[in-house]
Amino acid sequence: MAWFSPARRLTAAMPLLCLLLTPATGSAATDSPAPFVPQFDKDDRLTFPADYRDWVYVTTGIDMAYGPAMRMGHSMFDNVFVNREAYLAFKQTGTWPEKTTFVLEVRGAADKGSINKSGHFQTPEVMGLEVHVKDTARFHDDGWGFYSFDAGEAAPPPAEQLPVEQSCYSCHRDHGAVDTTFVQFYPTLRPIAEAKKTLSAAYLAEKP
Q: Could you tell me the CATH number of the domain that includes residue 173?
């Protein structure tokens, strides 16, 4: 067996050290997705964030209605997702940063299928898609814009902002727990807002 002198051992080890210390550019271990930024086309229409199901899941509601109860004859699930950067910022501050984007995904509720004997489960078909974006430079009323997309499309085309006269704006503004959003219905985020004291005065006034 050949023994290296200390100097030769150090020299022999240098290539290995270089491999260990050099950033692995392009490798799966170091690559991370670019931060999400909502995209708008030349006509100021919002591009649908197709990868929203890779975001942070916030909550699910079933048959929720903020106005008079509607008799639809069937149940619906509302699934809410938010981009990861906004979620992490909320955990730190208790409020939403610029470019926060929510997706509301509506699915039908079924009760008969496989081994299910009671209760409801979600169906594969997406029946509604709505997006809520924070951009105070773009939306001058309260800093947020609403968009509705065609859920029947595999790749929904860009959508125009819903008119600010629609009730979704005033409802969120008057009743949203944090920054016009319904954090009161997000079970893992409401305690953060309570601890950070970022709950809105409007919500606290009507809180049971």
A: 3.50.70.20
